[in-house]
Amino acid sequence: IPGAYLARVNVPDGLPLLPMRVGPRLVWATGMVEGWYYRDELVMAEDNGAKIELIDRSITSERETPWLKPYIEMVWPEREKALAKGNKEQSDWYKLLANSVSGKLAQGGESYRLVMDPPTDYVLPDNSLRLGKGCWGIPANIIPDCARPMAATALTSRVRCWLCGKLIEAGDGRVYCDTDCCYGEKRLTTGEGLGEWVYEGEY
């Protein structure tokens, strides 16, 4: 069922298939890992030899809707047009428009409340930020109206699944990867369409 699951998963030796939060960071490991995972990542992990040992709880939905698809299909062709014209600045702007969607959906509650010209008897917290003359940022836990953590979870988990699939394709010849890049000792499958891996050359 579409949704996020708090699961404990036994990942076999070899390629780390799932991330696990350690302090403020995500790490990838084999052996027993535990965390919140979207359905797609759990299916991918099972397909590659991992075993789900426990599902503690879940947040699920009866259906999924590609509600961001029209936006991306509008933005990305404009980026391609800008690239074709050699307009890198405009191309980078359209790329930011596309990429910022997931970040904004996942925006956390840690933020700042703006205070202008506070009265003299106003006690500013020690961790306040001075933004300018008479202007202060006061730490505040404000959940933004645009936050859609489940949508952000679905999006980022699918990106991790695509990356994991590319690392599996590279096999023992995998050399390096980041969020949207994978280098291997052999030529990997690439394409030119939206969402496909682009060949970047030899290293």
Provide an overview of this structure.
The protein is built from four helices and ten strands. The chain is an alpha+beta fold and 203 residues long. Strands 4-1-5 form a three-stranded antiparallel sheet. Strands 6-8-7 form a three-stranded antiparallel sheet, with no helix packed on it. The chain has a two-stranded antiparallel ribbon with strand order 2-3. Strand 7 (129-132) and strand 8 (135-141) form a beta hairpin.
Q: Total strand count, please? A: 10
Strand count, sense and barrel status of the largest sheet are: 3 strands, antiparallel
Secondary-structure content class: alpha+beta
Strand order of the largest sheet: 4-1-5
Q: What is the count of DSSP helices, taking H or I runs of 4+ residues?
A: 4
Fraction in beta strands: 25-35%
State the end-to-end distance.
41 Å
Radius of gyration, Cα only, in angstroms? 21 Å
Secondary structure layout plus pairing:
Elements: E1 3-11, E2 19-22, E3 25-28, E4 31-38, H1 39-47, E5 51-60, H2 69-84, H3 88-105, E6 110-116, E7 129-132, E8 135-141, H4 149-170, E9 174-178, E10 181-184
Antiparallel strand pairs: 1-4, 1-5, 2-3, 6-8, 7-8, 9-10
